[in-house]
Amino acid sequence: MPFPLNRMRRLRRTQTLRNLVRETRLSPESMIYPIFVCPGEKVRNEVSSMPGQYNLSVDNAVQVAREAEKAGVAGILLFGLPPQKDEVGSDAYDENGIIQQALRAIRENVRDLLLITDVCMCEYTSHGHCGIIKHNDVQNDPTLKLLADSAVSHVRAGADMVAPSDMMDGRVAAIRQALDSEGFTNTPIMAYSAKYASGFYGPFREAAGATPKFGDRRSYQMDPPNAREALREIALDIEEGADIVMVKPAMPYLDIIARAREQFDLPIAAYQVSGEYAMIEAAARAGWIERERIILETTTAIKRAGADILITYYALELAKTL
Ligand code: PBG
User: Fold this and answer.
1) Residues 128-144: tens digit of each pLDDT
2) Is the CB of 204 under 6 A from ligand 1?
3) Contact in structure between 270 and 302 (CB atoms under 8 Å)
4) What's the pLDDT tens digit per position in 234-246?
5) Is any ligand 1 atom within 6 A of the Cβ of residue 143?
6) Quick one: pLDDT at residue 34?
7) Is pLDDT at 166 greater than 90 in this prediction?
8) Residue 1 pLDDT level (bands cut at 50, 70, 90)
């Protein structure tokens, strides 16, 4: 029965009514805050293309972790900037690597906050690619061992969950097997399953010093025009033992999040990446958009599309203000 019997405006009349019928709610419990850990002491260098985000030495990373726990954020996602890089990314799986040091220090200072680590080679390799290079190409199978070693060393140092972001084939299975053989059968894997070769990672590459020295990542990350292929990637990661699957970036790929939500029953994470953050910050600074409103609208959109878990540089701020 159309108008005048049905009036959609009835339930929009007051804030209380709008709250009552709200379909999507943001909560810090389902948010993860990415941080960048660097060598040194008392370092807190702002990333110029990500105002409000910092390279933090371990002591400051501990403070931010405590703040995140207090604010009710579910977890932090740790990225490392090693003191030195080499061809095979040795610091990534070194017992005393930057991430391993950070994990041990943070673990002592928080209780419930989830410590999640990005597992990848690009921040640690001199060439900036996500795997070992031979004949100017990233070698898939030899990289798997290094990724598995990295994951194991993160968990030994105190990680609660590992998140491989390299996009090598077979890495979830390799990591699952390595963790299990070390007795870490209860450590979940959050796989960056549908990770696109995206221009939206630009500011991150400044933040993490991980720009490829030659070529690009298109031979391992996904081609942006493809959607069905993302569902295949996700299905394969699930078969290999992923506990949580991720779509990344988030806002330009809401269709992928929605399709993954329809097709799979696992928890789905979405990563609002550095470029998405930088665009909002830049436009807000120019006075072209209302910053807080846009933050709520974009993060809500990602959840409305079907993401259970939201990884965002706004997690800490949102947790404090929601
Ligand atoms: C590492 C990695 C990247 C991001 C997360 N893990 C960069 C890349 O693949 O180039 C991007 C995060 C962001 O842009 O916020 N492989």
Assistant:
1) 999 999 999 999 999 99
2) yes
3) yes
4) 999 999 999 999 9
5) no
6) 98
7) yes
8) confident
As given in the structure block, the two tokens for residue 239 are 């078969």
For residue 209, what are the contacts with CB-CB under 8 A and spacing of at least 6? 81, 123
Q: Whose C-alpha lies nearest to ligand 1, atom 7? A: 201
Mutate to test the pocket of ligand 1, among 50, 116, 121, 165 (most ligand atoms within 8 A of CB): 165
First to last CA, the chain: 38
118 lines ligand 1 (CB under 6 A): yes
Residue nearest to atom 11 of ligand 1 (CA): 201
Q: Is the peptide bond before 4 cis (omega within 30 degrees of 0)?
A: yes
Distance of CA 279 to the CA centre of its chain: 18
| Rounded Cα gap, residues 249 and 227, in angstroms | 13
Quote the pTM value.
0.98
Place of tokens 């409000």: 52
Contact 148, 176 (CB under 8 A): no
How far away, in angstroms, is 201 Cα from ligand 1 center? Answer: 6
Rounded Cα distance between 110 and 190, Å, is: 21
Catalytic residues: 195, 248
Separation CA 153–CA 164 (nearest Å)? 13
Confirm if 245 and 285 have CB atoms less than 8 A apart: no
Q: Any idea where the domains of the chain sit in the sequence? A: 26-246
Instruction: Give yes or no for a contact between 132 and 95, defined as CB atoms under 8 angstroms apart.
Output: no
Q: For residue range 48-93, what is the model confidence (pLDDT) as tens digits?
A: 999 999 999 999 999 999 999 999 999 999 999 999 999 999 999 9
Percent of the chain clearing pLDDT 90 (strictly above): 99
User: Looking at the domain that runs over 26-246, which CATH code has it been given?
Assistant: 3.20.20.70
Task: Say yes or no: CB of residue 313 within 6 Å of ligand 1.
Answer: no
**C-alpha 297 chain-centroid distance:** 19
Region 95-112 average pLDDT: 98
